[in-house]
Amino acid sequence: MAFYTSLKNQALYPAGVAEPGQAGWIAQRLMRLRSKLRAEITQIRRPNSLIIGSWNIRHFDGGRKRLPESYHYIAEIIDHFGICAIQEVKDLEAVERLMRLLGPNWDYFINDSSGAGRGNHERMAFVYNRNKVRFRNLIGELVLPKGALPGDEQVGRTPFFAAFQAGWFKFTLCSAHIVFKEEDGRPLREDEIGAVAAVLASRAADTGDVQIFLGDMNIDKREDASFKALTDNGFEVPLIGPTSLSGTKHYDQIAFAGPSHVSHMLSSGVVRWQDAVFRDDEAAFYEQIARDIREKPDTGKPYNNWASRYKLWRTDEMSDHLPVWIELEVDYSDNYLEGIAQSPPA
Q1: What is residue 178's predicted lDDT score, i.e. its pLDDT?
Q2: Does residue 69 register a pLDDT over 80?
Q3: DSSP H helical segments within the chain, as ranges?
Q4: Cross-strand bridge partners of residue 94
Q5: How far apart are CA 111 and CA 117, in angstroms?
Q6: Which domains, and CATH codes, for the chain?
Q7: What distance lies between CA 112 and its chain's CA centroid?
Q8: What is the pLDDT of residues 9-41, one digit of tens each?
Q9: Cβ-based neighbours of 18, under 8 Å, separated by 6 or more
Q10: Distance (Å, whole) CA 98 – CA 87
Q11: pTM of the predicted model, to two decimals?
């Protein structure tokens, strides 16, 4: 369970419910968010199942620094997963701050920066609940074989993988943030996705391990060549739904290759956080805060047409992507025992 004790620290969060940043204001929205997550995930999940999540948290936290309340909402969502891949990490302290809110039963790994250019100085992270998931001591960055991409390039933002186990289920996660802006003569989205998928599919065949390829793949539609690059390499891709706030783009995916990768998936979904926090009808409450933030480091010019600007502004607080998740069965003990019970005597 995410930690809420800091909300009682009035030096950080003044008492009250009327304005953003006040302890009561944040608590009310956390309760709204918890109610949504309970209805969509907690109450419908099977006992002892595993929830795997993935979330591109917009420039976390390398642009305008988020409000303290936003960290509570982000932590609340991730706390409803057993493990979560995070893309677009820009600041190590942001992850450490998140972990303090998640609590001591959570742990994490972060890879190296992908550098400038297509890498955009980004990192990726895996955060996981040690009460639900065990790290299997395999972790690394995916290096493609020579000639896998045009110009013998590597993926712009180096994919990050790690092996875990939950219950009986052994799996490897590979998190990716596929190129968004495409340039002539450089690898396209379908090139990057196809090259990574081919390597992971080969590993699944060689090791018998379930390979889960997830993250921000910048796929517009499931009919696109970039989506076909997944299925052409033997990956099964559940219909999670659009993950852009506009509800039109299928940017984020969770795909599977390996034995029993389909039969053990129970459900999937996206978290429309904007239904519970930073809602459309709350724009006016955040206008002065937005003006104060902008005036201190910038020109002091006011925002024009705040009602329209607010929808972009809130993506800097939460994200311009919706978190995605899948539920997997990880307890195969009944099937195991049935196999023994039906075996002929020796």
Answers
A1: 95
A2: yes
A3: 23-37, 68-78, 92-102, 189-207, 225-231, 283-295, 306-313, 333-341
A4: none
A5: 17
A6: 5-276+317-332 (3.60.10.10)
A7: 18
A8: 999 999 999 999 999 999 999 999 999 999 999
A9: 25
A10: 14
A11: 0.94
